[in-house]
Amino acid sequence: MPHTPTSGISILMPAYQLESAIGDNIDRVAAVVADWPSVEVIIVDDGSTDDTRRVAEKAAAAHDTVSVVGYPVNRGKGGALKEGFGYSTMEAVVFLDSDLDLPPEQLPSFLNEFERLNVDALVGAKRSAMAPGRYPLLRRVLSLTFAAVNSVLFRLPVRETQTGLKAFKRAALADTLPNLETVGYTFDLELLVRIRKAGGSMAEAPVALAKGSSSGLSFSTLWEMGRDTLQIWFRSLRW
Fold first, then answer.
1. Would 63 be classed as within a structural domain?
2. Domain tally for the chain?
3. How far apart are CA 37 and CA 93, in angstroms?
4. Is residue 1 part of a domain?
């Protein structure tokens, strides 16, 4: 069985329009970390227009380890994580999507691998979970294409960049996060490229998807991904 993390862990959970799920999801994460000696869970309401903030605050009130922050206007996932990092205090920082498509019960084993590898960034790799029947064919093809393009453009030692479960050493984020220009879907890509350019180490570890998870991508999101990827590449030439 995975051992309980012994070092301080900050878990940042960006949330947007999740009023129907955020309360139960907070309870679920809090249960996973209940016995950890040094942990904080920070929910960041990314300008939701529904009741996400109120429901999250109600759920957080039942857990000493959980707090809720946010702002009134949507900034995107990158903006939410930058905001949450400003409230964090621990030496290891975890990004975890609040919809829990990546079950929090795997956090102990994921953090064990982070500790074992001693890298600046550990990225969840869900390729084995994206088998036929789990993700639509188009979604799998797009993910593989995005990974191949990024491998050519950026030479990262990880193939997946967008998975919603990652762990970082605090110093790696402190040196790169304030300079990020991307706040949307490809925020993760720019962050990893900057960490690598700064000499940081990174690796992948397999993660499991929740049963029934099947994220979709709109044409507008695909356009944003392509545009932002090219912009990150052009900017990276002068970093």
1. yes
2. 1
3. 15
4. no
Joined tokens for residue 203: 């690796």
Strands 165-169 and 92-96, by their bridges, are antiparallel
Mean pLDDT of 209-222: 67
Show the 3-state SS of 69-103: EEECCCCCHHHHHHHHHHHCCCCEEEEECCCCCCC
Which CATH number belongs to the domain containing residue 22 in this structure?
3.90.550.10
H or E stretch including 42?
strand 39-46
CB-based burial, 171-202: b 16+ in 10 Å, e otherwise? ebbebbbeebebbebbbbbbbbbbbbeeebeb
The backbone torsions φ and ψ at residue 43, rounded to the nearest 5 degrees and listed phi first, read -90, 130
The neighbour count for residue 62, using CB atoms within 10 Å, is: 11
Q: pLDDT tens digit string along 123-182? A: 999 865 555 455 565 556 666 666 777 778 898 999 889 899 999 999 999 999 999 998
Enumerate residues 6+ apart whose C-beta is below 8 A from 83.
44, 69, 70, 71, 75
pTM for this prediction:
0.89
Residues 99/51, Cβ–Cβ less than 8 Å? no
Determine the structural domain holding residue 139 and report its residue range. 9-236
Kindly state whether residue 3 falls inside one of the protein's structural domains: no
Identity of the residue numbered 36? W
Segment 92-127, tens digit of pLDDT: 999 999 999 999 999 999 999 999 999 999 999 986
Separation in Å, CA 219 to CA 210, 223, 225, 226: 25, 6, 10, 11
Examine residue 2 and state whether it is found in any structural domain, yes or no: no
